[in-house]
Write a structure and sequence with these properties.
By secondary structure, the chain is an alpha/beta fold. 30% of the residues lie in helices and 23% in strands. It has helices at 13-22, 44-47, 58-61, 86-98, 121-124, 130-138, 152-166, 189-192, 203-214, 257-265, 291-294, 325-341, and strands at residues 3-8, 28-35, 66-67, 79-82, 102-105, 143-146, 168-177, 217-218, 223-224, 229-236, 243-251, 280-282, 303-310, 314-321. It has a 6-stranded parallel sheet with strand order 3-2-1-4-5-6, with helices on both faces. A 6-stranded mixed sheet has the order 10-7-11-14-13-12.
Amino acid sequence: MSVRVGVLGATGAVGQRLIQLLDPHPEFEIAALTASESSAGKPYRKAAKWRVDAPIPDDVADIQVGATTPESVPDDVDLIFSSLPSGVGAEVEPEFCEAGYVVSSNSSNGRMDDDVPLTIPEVNADHVDLIEVQRDERGWDGALLKNPNCSTITMVPALEALDRAFDLTDVRVSTLQAVSGAGYNGVSSMEIIDNAIPHIGGEEQKMETESRKLLGSFDGAEVQLHDMDVAASCNRIPTLDGHLENVWADTAEDISPEDAAEAMEAVTGVDLHSSPDRLIKVFEEPDRPQPRLDRNTEGGMGVAVGGFRETTDGVQFNCLAHNTMRGAAGASILNGELLDKRGYL
């Protein structure tokens, strides 16, 4: 039987991506959509200013949008995907969990809470069992699971490959992030055309903390953050989709560019529908990856890497991922598949 799912914030940019990916999904069936009060009560085709480069799915177009409250979602919905603004999510998501719903959330609120699992299934699937601690501490019948920030998720699979083989000690990263990461109205054309903006509010801190939690160890009771140092500088550039990142990784063990590429190339997906067979695609060309050419690697769910160079204490490389697919909607859906497989629905 299909898992019945709902989408909170269904009219936004990530909400639309969620619907695009969920409609043909073989395991999930869209059963509820919610949005702001101004959209509630309207059919989805009228509530959403659709901007995805494919038509609104016929099965979804006439679903009536509900208010973003637990009372507006049918009791038989098994899983909720949340793409709410963080301020709204911080208030609303716990209400859904208290009402018994399991929530896979892309929103940034709560990612670093001690009892909230932050997961990339190919990297730290075992962290999902932090839900048991969460339920004990909060008294929830439901649960809250988070995927990381879109810039964090771009580099962490590659870092995990290096850490497993060579023990990471320090990471420095400079990002070149697409405008879609700010939402449709997030950056005006007058700001970004012929320009680069060397500041994205809160982004550096997210990369510096979330990566340490993702690569940390879970002992069944808590997650111990990885002890590496991480420093990030985040920049917005005028590409539509795809976050490109320049990463410097220092390791305790000796490492060559060839060693790094081999470790990353060996990373495989996991047994979940949305996980690609090969998570990381390694380019030998020095000028790859590039956003326009490589953001749709593995249908937008893969990570592309290249440009390996030796440094004094490790390696430098470039990595790229599609920020609204792998970095947002696709990541939440993959986490939903993990929740189902691990018996949390």
